[in-house]
Amino acid sequence: MKNRRFLSDNNNTCLLLVLLSGLIGGEFLIIVFLRAADSPLTHSAASTSPLATTPIQLRAILHYATSPVVPQQTLDEITLSFDVLRSLCPCNFLVFGLGHDSLMWASFNPRGTTLFLEEDPRWIHSILKNAPDLHAHTVSYRTKLSESKALLKSYKSEPDCFPPDKAYLKNNDKCRLALNGLPNEVYDKEWDMIMIDAPRGWFAEAPGRMAAIYSAAVMARKRKGSGVTHVFLHDVDRRVEKAYAKEFLCRKYLVKGVGRLWHFEIPPAANVSGEGRESAGFC
């Protein structure tokens, strides 16, 4: 989901439409059929059905059917996340990055909460101008990609970063890997699924994804609800993403990888047993 790099490919567009149409097309036809019957009973059933097509889903179909711009992730990568999201929705879905695939992700979780975190307020304005249904916040990063090695070596010496069972995010000014100034909505919810496809991480002065990966790991460990937190990390072919994933998201929680996308299922810290758990690190 690179913010400013997109693919223009008719084949990808068709495949994406198959995903979207397969998700909601059947229900849409059922609703049309029921309304055609002109029965009060069928009208009531259509209006209260939890599967009834939503405006954001119809907007997504219209958008991707008429736009030459498609998401950067491949169909196989999108399908990996889509299958998990379909099994969870409605759910709480946090996405690092806002782009031309954001309408797609929100349409896959129409009755859940899908929140996008984006570093560039001008880019938010540009995207929301054409997709006002999306919910997005600006996030400020305190890191640079050039600092990734140093931060990975030094975070264990900062008590507010480590051990992981005591790490926290909100107002954590000392741990630079902690996203400490997010809206309360981010801290107050338990996120069932987190997608990390931002911020920028391909030049030295870019924020890099170190803080996003670390913060996602902290959120997952502090989960109090049932089940695991599903974390998806894109661009794992890059050195920093791969190194931080191994340190904080953990190889043992990696359940599947497709292309440049890894899927982790991270249990709450309360469900992880073993002596010396606090001092052992995130993994």
UniProtKB/TrEMBL annotation:
Name of protein: Polysaccharide biosynthesis domain-containing protein
Keywords: Membrane, Transmembrane, Transmembrane helix
GO annotation terms (biological process): xylan biosynthetic process
Gene Ontology cellular component list: Golgi membrane
PANTHER family hit by this protein: OS11G0490100 PROTEIN
Superkingdom, taxonomy of origin: Eukaryota
Membrane topology: Single-pass membrane protein
Cellular location(s): Golgi apparatus membrane
